[in-house]
Design goal:
202 residues; mainly alpha; 2 strands; 50% helix; 2% strand; elongated
């Protein structure tokens, strides 16, 4: 987990979609895990969830390390830092700051209000904008694309993924031996927003 974090943190990969392996129905992996008695009967098609099989590494160690990795990668500071590196590498790409549609301008205004005024990470948001415009003053569109995407990724990670990974392993279904399925098993649940502001890792 530490090696993954070190690599991604140094990279310009803003949307670092790190996931846990899922065994898909009908694949060789699915059949092998079923034969070994390690396969669970739930496959939700979500790579940001607990594994649908019994891993070699203790599952609580796996999910704990994965949860910690996601919390660090999608803390506002680390997310925006990767966004700044993206802008630095795209310094030669030209963008006309004056040819903006009304929709884009309204999106930027909503971003300033929702993220710069109302969000729990507003200090990191303004730090990002200040540095971003110093690096690429002509890339208004790209800067706000990174900023707006941050709102989704940060909230999704802290309000959906991390709480889901906190569920006990025994709630993930029973083991199956014969993979006779006609499709994906869809599980549903209710995700509630935390009443208090999330605490970001240092």
């Amino acid at each position: 987990f530490e090696r993954q974090h070190e690599f991604i943190a140094r990279s310009p990969i803003t949307l670092a979609m790190v996931g846990i392996l899922t065994a898909l129905p009908g694949t060789q992996l699915w059949r092998r895990l079923a034969k070994e008695g390690r396969l669970r009967g739930d496959c939700v098609g979500d790579n940001l969830a607990r594994p649908n099989f019994v891993p070699r590494m203790p599952e609580e160690m796996l999910t704990s390390g994965y949860k910690s990795l996601l919390a660090r990668l999608f803390s506002p500071r680390e997310y925006f830092d990767r966004g700044l590196r993206t802008l630095e590498l795209q310094a030669d790409i030209k963008e006309n700051p004056y040819r903006k549609s009304l929709r884009e301008l309204l999106t930027a205004a909503r971003s300033v209000w929702q993220q710069g005024v109302r969000s729990a990470y507003r200090r990191e948001y303004w730090r990002f904008l200040r540095k971003a415009f110093a690096i690429s003053p002509n890339k208004v569109g790209k800067i706000f694309t990174i900023a707006v995407t941050a709102e989704h990724m940060i909230r999704y990670t802290y309000e959906h993924v991390i709480p889901q990974l906190t569920e006990p392993a025994h709630a993930r279904g029973t083991l199956i031996k014969v993979p006779q399925v006609s499709g994906f098993v869809i599980s549903t649940g209710v995700v509630t927003q935390a009443e208090s502001s999330p605490s970001w890792p240092d």
